[in-house]
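Now read these lines:
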Amino acid sequence: MGTGGRSGLRPGKGTAEGVTAGKGNTDGVATTTTATAAVGSCQYRCIECNQEASELYRDYNHGVLKITICVSCQKSCQKPVDKYIEYDPVIILINAILCKAQAYRHILFNTKINMHGKLCIFCLLCEAYLRWWQLQDSNQNTDPDDFIRYAKEWDFYRMFAIASLEQTAFFIGIFTFLWVVRPMTAKKKPNFILLLKALLLSSYGKLLLIPAVIWEHDYTPLCLRLIKVFVLTSNFQAIRVTLNINRKLSFLAILSGLLLESTMVYFFQRMEWDIGSDCAIYKPQDF
Protein backbone atom coordinates (compact mmCIF):
# COMPACT_ATOMS: atom_id res chain seq x y z
CA MET A 1 0.00 0.00 0.00
CA GLY A 2 2.80 2.38 0.78
CA THR A 3 5.09 3.92 -1.77
CA GLY A 4 7.84 6.26 -0.75
CA GLY A 5 10.93 8.01 -1.90
CA ARG A 6 11.11 9.89 -5.15
CA SER A 7 10.48 6.72 -7.15
CA GLY A 8 6.91 6.52 -5.88
CA LEU A 9 5.95 10.10 -6.65
CA ARG A 10 3.61 11.15 -9.35
CA PRO A 11 5.11 12.81 -12.46
CA GLY A 12 5.38 16.55 -12.27
CA LYS A 13 6.62 16.99 -8.75
CA GLY A 14 8.81 20.02 -8.46
CA THR A 15 9.49 22.25 -11.46
CA ALA A 16 12.37 21.87 -13.86
CA GLU A 17 11.69 25.27 -15.47
CA GLY A 18 13.26 27.03 -12.50
CA VAL A 19 16.53 25.19 -13.01
CA THR A 20 16.71 26.23 -16.64
CA ALA A 21 15.75 29.82 -16.00
CA GLY A 22 18.02 30.26 -12.99
CA LYS A 23 21.09 28.77 -14.72
CA GLY A 24 22.59 27.62 -11.46
CA ASN A 25 21.41 30.59 -9.40
CA THR A 26 19.31 29.33 -6.53
CA ASP A 27 17.57 32.69 -6.16
CA GLY A 28 16.48 32.56 -9.77
CA VAL A 29 15.30 29.01 -9.28
CA ALA A 30 13.16 29.91 -6.27
CA THR A 31 11.62 32.93 -8.01
CA THR A 32 10.79 31.07 -11.20
CA THR A 33 9.49 28.06 -9.31
CA THR A 34 7.22 30.24 -7.20
CA ALA A 35 5.84 31.95 -10.27
CA THR A 36 5.23 28.63 -11.96
CA ALA A 37 3.52 27.30 -8.84
CA ALA A 38 1.20 30.29 -8.75
CA VAL A 39 -0.19 29.55 -12.19
CA GLY A 40 -0.07 25.79 -11.82
CA SER A 41 -2.92 23.67 -10.63
CA CYS A 42 -2.92 22.63 -6.95
CA GLN A 43 -2.91 18.90 -7.44
CA TYR A 44 -1.18 17.84 -4.23
CA ARG A 45 -2.05 18.11 -0.53
CA CYS A 46 -0.15 19.08 2.57
CA ILE A 47 -0.12 16.00 4.74
CA GLU A 48 -0.28 18.10 7.92
CA CYS A 49 -3.10 20.61 7.30
CA ASN A 50 -4.71 19.04 4.19
CA GLN A 51 -4.42 22.29 2.22
CA GLU A 52 -3.76 22.17 -1.51
CA ALA A 53 -0.21 22.55 -2.79
CA SER A 54 1.18 22.99 -6.27
CA GLU A 55 4.45 21.13 -5.66
CA LEU A 56 6.13 18.83 -3.19
CA TYR A 57 9.78 19.72 -3.71
CA ARG A 58 12.07 21.91 -5.76
CA ASP A 59 14.90 20.57 -7.85
CA TYR A 60 18.04 22.71 -7.65
CA ASN A 61 19.94 20.53 -10.12
CA HIS A 62 22.78 18.11 -9.37
CA GLY A 63 20.39 16.00 -7.30
CA VAL A 64 19.85 18.77 -4.74
CA LEU A 65 16.19 18.76 -3.67
CA LYS A 66 14.40 20.89 -1.12
CA ILE A 67 11.02 19.89 0.28
CA THR A 68 8.43 22.61 -0.18
CA ILE A 69 7.07 24.31 2.93
CA CYS A 70 3.31 24.70 3.21
CA VAL A 71 2.50 28.36 2.53
CA SER A 72 -1.19 28.07 1.72
CA CYS A 73 -3.00 31.38 1.84
CA GLN A 74 -5.94 29.80 3.67
CA LYS A 75 -4.36 27.92 6.56
CA SER A 76 -0.62 27.62 6.36
CA CYS A 77 0.99 25.23 8.83
CA GLN A 78 4.55 26.22 7.90
CA LYS A 79 5.55 22.55 7.82
CA PRO A 80 6.90 20.44 4.95
CA VAL A 81 4.15 19.66 2.46
CA ASP A 82 5.07 15.97 2.34
CA LYS A 83 7.92 14.65 4.45
CA TYR A 84 7.22 11.10 3.27
CA ILE A 85 8.79 11.68 -0.14
CA GLU A 86 12.15 10.99 1.51
CA TYR A 87 10.95 8.04 3.58
CA ASP A 88 11.49 4.39 2.82
CA PRO A 89 8.36 2.54 1.60
CA VAL A 90 8.53 0.24 4.62
CA ILE A 91 8.30 3.22 6.99
CA ILE A 92 5.31 4.57 5.06
CA LEU A 93 3.62 1.17 5.20
CA ILE A 94 4.12 0.98 8.95
CA ASN A 95 2.62 4.46 9.37
CA ALA A 96 -0.33 3.42 7.20
CA ILE A 97 -0.86 0.30 9.31
CA LEU A 98 -0.92 2.60 12.35
CA CYS A 99 -3.67 4.55 10.52
CA LYS A 100 -1.82 7.87 10.62
CA ALA A 101 -3.68 10.54 8.66
CA GLN A 102 -0.41 11.96 7.25
CA ALA A 103 0.52 8.61 5.70
CA TYR A 104 -2.93 8.26 4.18
CA ARG A 105 -2.77 11.75 2.65
CA HIS A 106 0.65 10.95 1.18
CA ILE A 107 -0.60 7.74 -0.41
CA LEU A 108 -3.96 9.06 -1.62
CA PHE A 109 -3.01 12.54 -2.84
CA ASN A 110 0.72 12.70 -3.46
CA THR A 111 1.47 9.37 -5.09
CA LYS A 112 0.25 7.67 -8.22
CA ILE A 113 -1.06 4.17 -7.48
CA ASN A 114 -2.99 2.26 -10.14
CA MET A 115 -3.44 -1.02 -8.34
CA HIS A 116 -6.92 -0.42 -6.93
CA GLY A 117 -8.65 -2.96 -9.15
CA LYS A 118 -5.99 -5.63 -8.74
CA LEU A 119 -5.91 -5.19 -4.98
CA CYS A 120 -9.71 -5.40 -4.82
CA ILE A 121 -9.79 -8.65 -6.81
CA PHE A 122 -7.02 -10.17 -4.71
CA CYS A 123 -8.73 -9.22 -1.44
CA LEU A 124 -12.00 -10.71 -2.69
CA LEU A 125 -10.16 -13.90 -3.61
CA CYS A 126 -8.75 -14.07 -0.09
CA GLU A 127 -12.18 -13.57 1.42
CA ALA A 128 -13.74 -16.09 -0.97
CA TYR A 129 -11.09 -18.65 -0.03
CA LEU A 130 -11.81 -18.12 3.66
CA ARG A 131 -15.55 -18.63 3.12
CA TRP A 132 -14.92 -21.65 0.91
CA TRP A 133 -12.61 -23.10 3.58
CA GLN A 134 -15.29 -22.60 6.24
CA LEU A 135 -17.88 -24.22 3.97
CA GLN A 136 -15.73 -27.27 3.28
CA ASP A 137 -14.81 -27.58 6.93
CA SER A 138 -18.46 -27.55 8.01
CA ASN A 139 -19.57 -30.01 5.32
CA GLN A 140 -17.04 -32.77 5.84
CA ASN A 141 -18.13 -36.07 4.34
CA THR A 142 -16.24 -39.35 4.46
CA ASP A 143 -18.27 -40.89 1.64
CA PRO A 144 -15.82 -41.85 -1.15
CA ASP A 145 -18.52 -41.04 -3.70
CA ASP A 146 -18.63 -37.40 -2.63
CA PHE A 147 -19.02 -34.45 -5.03
CA ILE A 148 -16.59 -34.38 -7.87
CA ARG A 149 -13.85 -31.78 -7.83
CA TYR A 150 -15.48 -29.21 -10.08
CA ALA A 151 -18.47 -29.02 -7.73
CA LYS A 152 -16.20 -27.68 -5.00
CA GLU A 153 -14.63 -25.37 -7.54
CA TRP A 154 -18.05 -23.86 -8.28
CA ASP A 155 -18.54 -23.43 -4.54
CA PHE A 156 -15.47 -21.20 -4.56
CA TYR A 157 -16.84 -19.14 -7.45
CA ARG A 158 -20.11 -18.77 -5.56
CA MET A 159 -18.27 -17.56 -2.47
CA PHE A 160 -16.41 -15.04 -4.62
CA ALA A 161 -19.68 -13.70 -6.06
CA ILE A 162 -21.29 -13.42 -2.63
CA ALA A 163 -18.23 -11.66 -1.18
CA SER A 164 -18.33 -9.22 -4.10
CA LEU A 165 -22.01 -8.47 -3.53
CA GLU A 166 -21.49 -7.90 0.17
CA GLN A 167 -18.57 -5.54 -0.41
CA THR A 168 -20.62 -3.67 -3.02
CA ALA A 169 -23.44 -3.31 -0.51
CA PHE A 170 -20.95 -2.01 2.07
CA PHE A 171 -19.70 0.67 -0.33
CA ILE A 172 -23.22 1.61 -1.44
CA GLY A 173 -24.22 2.11 2.19
CA ILE A 174 -21.26 4.43 2.73
CA PHE A 175 -21.86 6.44 -0.44
CA THR A 176 -25.58 6.75 0.24
CA PHE A 177 -25.01 8.14 3.73
CA LEU A 178 -22.34 10.58 2.54
CA TRP A 179 -24.58 11.74 -0.31
CA VAL A 180 -27.43 12.42 2.08
CA VAL A 181 -25.30 14.46 4.50
CA ARG A 182 -23.30 16.14 1.73
CA PRO A 183 -25.22 19.48 1.79
CA MET A 184 -24.49 19.83 5.51
CA THR A 185 -20.80 18.94 5.47
CA ALA A 186 -19.17 19.70 2.13
CA LYS A 187 -18.49 23.13 0.71
CA LYS A 188 -17.81 21.56 -2.66
CA LYS A 189 -18.89 18.35 -4.33
CA PRO A 190 -16.94 15.41 -2.85
CA ASN A 191 -14.83 13.28 -5.15
CA PHE A 192 -16.53 9.89 -4.82
CA ILE A 193 -14.20 8.35 -7.40
CA LEU A 194 -11.23 9.17 -5.20
CA LEU A 195 -13.17 7.91 -2.19
CA LEU A 196 -13.82 4.59 -3.92
CA LYS A 197 -10.12 4.21 -4.68
CA ALA A 198 -9.30 5.09 -1.07
CA LEU A 199 -11.73 2.46 0.24
CA LEU A 200 -10.29 -0.18 -2.05
CA LEU A 201 -6.73 0.62 -1.00
CA SER A 202 -7.62 0.75 2.68
CA SER A 203 -9.09 -2.76 2.46
CA TYR A 204 -5.59 -4.23 2.14
CA GLY A 205 -5.99 -5.74 5.60
CA LYS A 206 -8.04 -8.54 4.06
CA LEU A 207 -4.79 -9.98 2.76
CA LEU A 208 -4.15 -11.14 6.32
CA LEU A 209 -7.02 -13.63 5.96
CA ILE A 210 -4.83 -16.11 4.11
CA PRO A 211 -2.10 -16.36 6.79
CA ALA A 212 -4.82 -16.65 9.44
CA VAL A 213 -6.24 -19.66 7.61
CA ILE A 214 -2.90 -21.27 6.70
CA TRP A 215 -1.62 -21.17 10.27
CA GLU A 216 -4.85 -22.48 11.71
CA HIS A 217 -5.01 -22.16 15.47
CA ASP A 218 -7.51 -22.27 18.28
CA TYR A 219 -7.55 -18.47 18.18
CA THR A 220 -8.34 -18.27 14.46
CA PRO A 221 -11.93 -16.94 14.97
CA LEU A 222 -10.56 -14.17 17.19
CA CYS A 223 -7.91 -13.33 14.59
CA LEU A 224 -10.55 -13.08 11.87
CA ARG A 225 -12.59 -10.68 13.96
CA LEU A 226 -9.52 -8.56 14.68
CA ILE A 227 -8.75 -8.44 10.96
CA LYS A 228 -12.31 -7.28 10.32
CA VAL A 229 -11.91 -4.51 12.90
CA PHE A 230 -8.59 -3.45 11.36
CA VAL A 231 -10.11 -3.24 7.87
CA LEU A 232 -13.02 -1.14 9.16
CA THR A 233 -10.61 1.15 11.00
CA SER A 234 -8.60 1.63 7.81
CA ASN A 235 -11.80 2.38 5.87
CA PHE A 236 -12.79 4.88 8.56
CA GLN A 237 -9.47 6.71 8.23
CA ALA A 238 -9.66 6.67 4.44
CA ILE A 239 -13.09 8.33 4.50
CA ARG A 240 -11.99 10.96 7.01
CA VAL A 241 -8.83 11.84 5.08
CA THR A 242 -10.33 11.79 1.59
CA LEU A 243 -13.37 13.95 2.33
CA ASN A 244 -11.79 15.93 5.20
CA ILE A 245 -14.76 15.34 7.49
CA ASN A 246 -14.95 14.78 11.22
CA ARG A 247 -14.69 11.43 12.96
CA LYS A 248 -18.39 11.28 13.83
CA LEU A 249 -19.54 11.39 10.21
CA SER A 250 -16.87 8.90 9.16
CA PHE A 251 -18.00 6.52 11.89
CA LEU A 252 -21.66 6.89 10.88
CA ALA A 253 -20.72 6.23 7.25
CA ILE A 254 -19.00 2.98 8.27
CA LEU A 255 -22.06 1.99 10.32
CA SER A 256 -24.32 2.67 7.33
CA GLY A 257 -22.18 0.43 5.16
CA LEU A 258 -22.18 -2.33 7.78
CA LEU A 259 -25.95 -2.05 8.15
CA LEU A 260 -26.56 -2.56 4.44
CA GLU A 261 -23.98 -5.35 4.28
CA SER A 262 -25.60 -7.10 7.26
CA THR A 263 -28.98 -6.77 5.57
CA MET A 264 -27.64 -8.56 2.51
CA VAL A 265 -26.07 -11.28 4.69
CA TYR A 266 -29.41 -11.77 6.42
CA PHE A 267 -31.08 -12.04 3.01
CA PHE A 268 -28.63 -14.72 1.90
CA GLN A 269 -29.18 -16.63 5.13
CA ARG A 270 -32.95 -16.45 4.68
CA MET A 271 -32.42 -17.95 1.24
CA GLU A 272 -30.57 -20.76 3.08
CA TRP A 273 -27.35 -20.17 1.20
CA ASP A 274 -24.07 -21.27 2.76
CA ILE A 275 -22.17 -18.02 2.58
CA GLY A 276 -19.38 -18.51 5.10
CA SER A 277 -19.65 -14.85 6.08
CA ASP A 278 -17.87 -13.16 8.95
CA CYS A 279 -21.34 -12.74 10.44
CA ALA A 280 -21.92 -16.49 10.43
CA ILE A 281 -21.77 -18.39 13.71
CA TYR A 282 -18.64 -20.49 14.16
CA LYS A 283 -18.87 -24.03 15.33
CA PRO A 284 -18.53 -24.49 19.11
CA GLN A 285 -15.36 -26.53 18.72
CA ASP A 286 -13.67 -23.57 17.05
CA PHE A 287 -13.61 -21.68 20.35
Summary: Confidence is low (pLDDT under 50) at residues 11-40, 279-287. The longest helix spans residues 149-185.
